[in-house]
Amino acid sequence: MRIATWNVNSVSARLPRLLAWLRAAEPDVLCLQEIKCDGEAFPSAEVGELGYEVAAYGAGRWNGVAVLSRVGLADVRQGLLDEPGFQDDGALVAATQPRALGATCAGVRVWSVYVPNGREIDHPHYAYKLRWLAALSETVTEELPGSGPLAVLGDFNIAPTDADVWDIAAYADSTHVTAAERAALDELAKTGLDEVYPRALKYDVPFTYWDYRQLAFPKNRGMRIDLVYGDPQFTSAVADSYVDREERKGKGGSDHAPVVVDLELAG
């Protein structure tokens, strides 16, 4: 089974490339983030022509997640256990922003997650990010007992180590690399998950994100923030994992590259 995750940065803007990538990479399951559309507006018919069922959870211009599967789609769950809302400019944006979607595909439980960015360390969004990550760990703890293989895939907006950014000095006093954010990843691991580290097809570190500005991609000034965590049943079945850096190339691409995981499942 091939499972992938990709922050597509607007499914409508990226639809031709999404369809082309589905044809070329042939994932059995694809977790998407930042679809930036209502669930009803997701181009289900177009991906359906390629054999994929769709579960989409979105609310317009921002955020949004989806799971595409050609091996079955069941037990869909929108949002996390006790998921926090975010107070912005005195107004509660949403009790549950569309950032997490769970589904079972051919016996494998997957969660597509788009972790809040955090913006700045002293911004309320940073505190929201940490609360959201705590809710993610609680949700995984709830789902793990008695489950089949389980994985959490998506844009975590956290670089796990200093080596996962092109220059740690460039991120001084920035989000994505703070001790508290990395501690939240450690808490996720304590639930019983381990990270699946992908191989790099070019360069030493398999970065997954490059800013559109200042020629960041050609200069390989990237970050590894799109991550895959799995329980022992999932990680023990991993035969290969890599970042499809080629998809980031050219005009009209997302600023993230897909991360692909190949599994050899018994039975």
Q: Please, could you describe this protein's structure?
A:
The protein is α+β, with helices and mostly antiparallel strands. The chain contains 5 helices and 16 strands. The strands form 4 sheets. A 6-stranded mixed β-sheet has the order 3-4-2-1-16-15. Strands 5-8-9-10-14-11 form a 6-stranded mixed β-sheet. Strands 6-7 form a two-stranded antiparallel sheet. Helix 3 packs parallel to helix 4. Its cofactor is Mg(2+); Mn(2+). It comes from Tamaricihabitans halophyticus. GO terms for molecular function: DNA binding; double-stranded DNA 3'-5' DNA exonuclease activity; endonuclease activity; metal ion binding.
Strand order of the largest sheet: 3-4-2-1-16-15
- Approximate shape: globular
Instruction: Please report the distance between the alpha carbons of the first and last residues.
Output: 12 Å
Q: What would CATH call the architecture?
A: 4-Layer Sandwich
- Annotated CATH homologous superfamily: Endonuclease/exonuclease/phosphatase
Task: Give the percentage of residues in beta strands.
Answer: 25-35%
How confident overall, as mean pLDDT? 94
Helix-strand category: alpha+beta
The biggest sheet, with number of strands, parallel, antiparallel or mixed sense and barrel status, is: 6 strands, mixed
Number of strands: 16
What string gives the helices and strands in order?
EHEHEEEEEEEHEHEEEEHEE
What count of structural domains? 1
The CATH class label is Alpha Beta
Q: How large is the count of helical segments? A: 5
Q: What fraction, in percent, of the residue positions are helical?
A: 10-25%
Radius of gyration: 17 Å
At the third CATH level, what is the topology name? Deoxyribonuclease I, Chain A
- The low-confidence parts are none
Organism: Tamaricihabitans halophyticus
Family: Belongs to the DNA repair enzymes AP/ExoA family.
GO molecular function, one term: double-stranded DNA 3'-5' DNA exonuclease activity
Site (Interaction with DNA substrate): 256
